[in-house]
Design a protein that fits this description.
single chain; about 400 residues; mainly beta; Methylamine Dehydrogenase, Chain H; 4-stranded antiparallel beta sheet; 4 helices; about 5% helix; repeat
């Protein structure tokens, strides 16, 4: 599911195939929408407009009705939601609502100045953790339990201020990056122990705008204001396959790995930083973009949406990684029909590679339906949202068919 805000309203899309982009809903009732958040694939959508930046409007878009609206003391910077909680982030406070009846459960006041509204909420409501900056000058993360409404822990993640935060689908891992953008770290939740450390690059500082896990938590994707998107694989160096032929770099890697047992933590941390498993080279630079790792038509894809209104879909080779191959470009603003047709003629440069040879176009109409909700974030199939989940209060969705999609 993809939601975009525009100067004239907002649009919702379904991404069930590579070739076709299905528009689910379009609204031109509210201009200058800068926040639009949809509750998975349900009818509930939360919208904030530049016309009224202090007001949150909650809609049932299929019925065309407003469920409720709330006003706050200052501009709304971000909104996060799962089946249990709706979180509204202002510059110096955070409001937590119960999504079943929209009642305000908790207000976290006097948070450190958070001018970008940086915060993350686990999509798994059983582990409804909230993460936000614990300091304006350092990379400290405050972890809050959205179910018990209590502070869980504080994680000293980076030296410099935070720029990006994201949970994995089960709420058991949290990834972060600082304003420098050179190092990305992954922590266990709720304990806060460091699990992985990835180096995005040493040559220049970058502004990481998007950080996201794949649904199975095997990959972590990071995009910035540069032309390169990085995908990291969450595996330890000791997991390397024994059948690999011995190389000088492999030999040195094993030496470094052994040496880390005897070195101070700071030094060993540097040696355990992994390079990117896969990359994407965008043909633009300096534009804000959002990335996602998803499974579309049973194959792993990397998706990039740019602020100029385009969606790029790449094939991701889950075994060998490397350069991802662009297979489709969509216009999200409705004026790119000719451009979209031209993109159908994209010829992958390396036809012998995995990423280039997997099906570019589905010859059989897709009959797959959205997977049912499951507590593990989607790994299991077939469970639907129980009727009683949304049976009380103003948030009453139509039917049990409105369950979370394969998340993007």
């Amino acid at each position: 599911s993809l939601a975009i805000g525009t100067t004239i309203g907002y649009k919702l899309f379904s991404l069930s195939s590579v070739e076709q982009l299905d528009q689910v809903h379009e609204s031109n009732e509210i201009p200058d929408v800068y926040i639009v958040e949809r509750l998975f694939s349900s009818s509930l959508v939360v919208v904030v407009s530049h016309a009224k930046p202090q007001q949150m409007n909650v809609y049932h878009f299929k019925k065309g009705t407003e469920i409720c609206n709330y006003s706050y003391s200052s501009n709304i910077l971000s909104i996060r939601l799962n089946r249990q909680r709706l979180v509204v982030c202002l510059e110096e406070s955070i409001y937590i609502h119960n999504i079943k009846d929209m009642k305000l459960l908790k207000t976290i006041l006097d948070t450190p100045p958070n001018t970008t509204g940086l915060c993350a909420l686990s999509i798994n409501h059983a582990n409804s953790y909230l993460a936000y900056p614990g300091s304006a000058s350092s990379g400290e993360i405050s972890l809050y339990d959205g179910n018990t409404l209590k502070t869980a822990c504080t994680i000293p993640a980076h030296d410099g201020p935070l720029a990006a935060l994201t949970f994995n689908s089960t709420g058991s891992k949290l990834a972060s990056a600082s304003e420098k953008g050179t190092v990305i770290r992954v922590f266990s939740i709720p304990g806060g122990q460091k699990l992985y450390e990835f180096r995005r690059g040493m040559k220049r500082y970058v502004n990481i705008s998007s950080l996201v896990f794949s649904m199975d938590s095997q990959f972590l994707c990071a995009s910035s204001n540069t032309e390169t998107v990085h995908v990291f694989k969450l595996e330890h160096l000791t997991d390397s396959r024994p059948e690999e032929p011995p190389t000088w770099s492999g030999y040195m890697g094993k030496m470094f790995q052994a040496a880390t047992n005897y070195l101070p933590a700071q030094v060993s941390g540097m040696m355990n930083q992994d390079r990117a498993f896969a990359t994407v080279r965008l043909n633009i630079s300096g534009q804000r973009n959002i990335c996602a790792l998803s499974t579309i038509q049973k194959l792993p894809r990397l998706l990039v949406t740019t602020s100029d209104g385009h969606l790029y879909i790449y094939n991701l080779d889950p075994q060998d990684g490397g350069e991802c191959v662009l297979i489709k470009k969509h216009s999200l603003l409705g004026s790119g029909k000719m451009e979209e047709n031209k993109e159908n003629n994209l010829q992958p440069p390396l036809p012998q590679s995995y990423a280039a040879t997997v099906a570019r176009q589905s010859t059989v109409p897709s009959t797959s339906t959205m997977p049912g909700y499951s507590e593990d974030g989607g790994a299991l199939r077939g469970e639907v949202i129980p009727e009683h989940e949304f049976a009380t209060g103003p948030v009453c969705l139509d039917d049990e068919n409105e369950f979370p999609p394969v998340s993007i």
